[in-house]
Amino acid sequence: MTRVSESIDVDVPVEKVFWAVTDPDTMPRFLSLVKSMEVTGPDTTKWVVELAGKTASFEAKATEVDPPNHARYESMTQRVPFVLDLRCRAVSPTTTSLVLEAEFDAGGMAEKLGLAKGVASVALKNQLGNAKKYLERRFASDGVA
């Protein structure tokens, strides 16, 4: 399994960041690794993600939800091991530290050689940059950020 963690500060209040990063309709707009996220039950969702050049579809369960601080999603599909941890911490009333941790099976030679983590880390850092831009634009138009 490959595990990566990256963080970024976003000039948006913690409650709004948490709402956006856990909303199934919003998440795919700024995390391009999440192609879709569809609610299938009270705490379950169907995900389509693209990681390390591979597309995977799986059912996930929200195993921990502590608004506005933490949400954890874990794959319920054995053939597609995947965990996404989202952590939000208020740095100030208008700034949030957003941490994304992903754990997945990259498979193949890249994972065996230890290369998958570096590639995934760069990709996750880019995803967080996209999230920052999206969130700050989205909530600046509300006059909030």
TrEMBL record:
It comes from the Bacteria. It holds the Pfam family Polyketide_cyc2. InterPro entries: Polyketide_cyclase/dehydratase (IPR019587), START-like_dom_sf (IPR023393). This is SRPBCC family protein. It comes from Pseudoclavibacter endophyticus.
